[in-house]
Task: structure prediction
Amino acid sequence: MNEESFTKKLAALFPQGPDVKVGPGDDCAVLDLGMKELFLAAVDQVISKVHYLEGCPPSYVAGKLLKRNISDIAAMGGLPTHALLSIAVNPMDEEWLALFHEAMAKFSKVYGISVIGGDMARLFTPGEVLSLTILGKVEREKLCLRSGAKKNDLLYATGSFGNSFYSGHHLEFTPRLEEARFLAGNFTHAMQDVSDGLLKDAARMAEASGLALALEPEKVPLRRGASVEAALTNGEDYELLIAVPPSLTFRLERAWSFPTALTRIGKFIEGTPGQVAGTEELNLSQKPTGYDHFQ
Result:
């Protein structure tokens, strides 16, 4: 059993109503409530000793929790609007809790998000389990799904990859909201964020699109201290993967004016959905290709 197969089984348990345009399986759920814009919803969590080391300042923890959720909204081409916060901690340290919530308020203001409620509980063992539900909106013509890649689309990636945890990137990253808004509806057939590992998430995009992927690992930009293998498998990068039609690549590269790097790293091809070619020389077949909570 792995996380991928188990979550697919879970998704099949829950029938969706007629207002659910996209249910489980993408970066966000998408609801069509009959308004001009579509409604986005996602939930993610951080857990002490899993997503950050013991003793990490609460301000960094709050920032990571909010920003990793914002990254999901960005991947859909949308804008975040509201959030709900649920936390369970031990000990119930008033100073830690105050610093955490003050930082959450500060980051929420930066991104124009209203925290509209939440819940708090005490764990019976030391640690923190912190969950945030994020809501957002996206214009219908800008909605990006991971399932929209077409044969011969080029795979682009923002930023750099690997060594996110030990470099501190996983705490101090900037969600690619502006870049995603520029891309969405203008240059994209598909888009998703990278949190569980570039190779794993790229394979998810290919599988959802019914295609295989020819990856060029040597072109993947490396974060300082990262190897190619680490760049493909570490995760916690919070960058974007974008499927771009070949006819738009020249215009995209000319129009790209962000300081964030944009790099062509592969191509979607016919083949077994989700199969990734190009990594054979790295001997990754017996190694984890990304983060899995079941392993």
Summary: The radius of gyration is 19 Å. The chain is about 30% helix and 25% strand.
